[in-house]
Amino acid sequence: MTINRYKHSWPTRLFHAALALSIITQLATSQFMVTPKAGRPENVFFEIHEYSGLTALVLATLFFLNIAFRNRGTEAGLLFPWFSGARLRALGADISQFLKSAAKFRLPPYHSESPIASAVHGLGLLLMALMASTGALWWAGGKFGVPGSQITDVAMEVHEIFSNLVWVYLIGHAAMALIHHYTDQMSLKEMWSLKKHRG
Ligand code: HEM
Ligand code: HEM
Description:
The protein is an all-alpha fold and 199 residues long. 69% of the residues lie in helices and 0% in strands. Pfam families: Ni_hydr_CYTB (PF01292).
């Protein structure tokens, strides 16, 4: 009996959905939260931001472990091409193809193993890990007292500097996924189904 498989394994789809939902929660709460400052109490949105952010750190770690050990889905070298000459050359060729299409106001056709899309996905994952770990470092500093409080101040500065990129990634990545879905080049279910197998 042949099993009709999704492109992405079940753990990949599970961790992707959970991480995406936690990041959307982070962005939403960041709009309404009141942070604790001298004499000013935090509000519930800040508490949600803290705890779903700590959850995002666990989920990002699980996502990395899953990439390292899975035997199906995008190769780790496509997501993180930065240490291989051959991968970087393929990325350069894909970027130049992308620019040629953009110059003609056309979107390049969808390729499931596209070097540029995969490298952007890898950078997105690294960005979420950076946001979650800088937030967690700041939190641990307040909770347990990290020696040399400057580390936690720097962590929070980095957190704030990179926060706008999270919006850019989410909007850009979701828009590309929706365009590919509605132009019938790929189905969102390839990543957003939680069924073990198709059908
Ligand atoms: C900020 C939250 C998100 C993060 C961090 C994220 C991250 C990622 C990563 C790392 C991959 C590559 C996984 C792999 O190849 O193993 C991926 C793929 C994908 N994501 Fe997201 N994602 C997010 C939100 C979304 C949203 C909201 C959508 C849909 C509207 C979406 C749709 C997809 C699809 C369809 C793929 C598969 C693309 C393909 O196989 O060609 N993602 N995402
Ligand atoms: C992937 C996880 C996270 C994302 C995407 C994220 C996103 C954001 C965003 C968008 C802002 C608003 C920045 C601004 O407008 O200047 C922010 C601020 C902040 N976040 Fe996070 N965050 C994450 C995890 C965490 C964690 C784990 C904590 C602590 C437990 C945390 C604590 C804070 C604090 C204290 C602020 C600054 C508030 C201020 O003084 O204005 N974040 N975060």
